[in-house]
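Is this the right way to post structure tokens for a design question? Let me know if I should format differently. Anyway, here goes:
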């Protein structure tokens, strides 16, 4: 169960729950949100693959691959070249496609911090993870790339456990998403 301490002091718990097909076989996940132990929302149906991809991307960026290498501090390195971009946005959707009942999103922000000793601004990047419950009340956690990596990796690990150990990074349908045909 992944969790984050938010800026208002509340605690957001994010728990992966298996989505099952018509015969009960788990194939993906949905995320259950709790605020200080109270149910808060259900979001992100079939979001496991995206979380696994994000976990790999954050780890690669922290190692200085791609455009992330321009950031000196590994805590400022995220897998997107845009300074203000969204890493994910999960909402609750009903079977008919209506949106409501919660949201979980992660947006990158560049923050200038004044350093008096050299007398200059230093730019940092942080991930703003925001959750909105069905009642419209929001909560926010501000994370370094190391903290985001730990949070997402924990979610992926737990998700793979509730899917019977299936690797979320792999599509279970042979060749799906690779351009290969059978």
């Amino acid at each position: 169960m992944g969790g984050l301490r938010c800026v208002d002091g509340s605690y957001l718990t994010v728990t992966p729950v298996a989505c099952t097909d018509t015969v009960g076989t788990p194939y993906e996940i949905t995320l259950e949100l709790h605020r200080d132990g109270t149910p808060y929302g259900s979001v992100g149906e079939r979001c496991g693959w995206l979380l696994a991809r994000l976990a790999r991307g954050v780890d690669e960026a922290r190692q200085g691959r791609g455009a992330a290498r321009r950031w000196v501090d590994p805590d400022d390195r995220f897998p997107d070249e845009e300074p203000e971009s969204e890493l994910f946005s999960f909402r609750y959707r009903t079977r008919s496609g209506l949106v409501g009942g919660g949201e979980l999103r992660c947006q990158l922000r560049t923050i200038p911090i004044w350093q008096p000793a050299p007398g200059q601004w230093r730019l940092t990047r942080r991930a703003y993870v925001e959750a909105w419950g069905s009642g419209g009340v929001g909560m926010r956690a501000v994370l370094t790339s190391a903290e985001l990596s730990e949070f997402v990796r924990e979610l992926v690990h737990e998700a793979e456990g509730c899917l019977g150990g299936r690797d979320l990074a792999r599509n279970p349908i042979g060749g799906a998403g690779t351009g290969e045909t059978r």
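Format looks fine. Someone answered above. Worth noting: Helices lie at 48-62, 145-162. Residues 171-182 have pLDDT under 50 and may be disordered.
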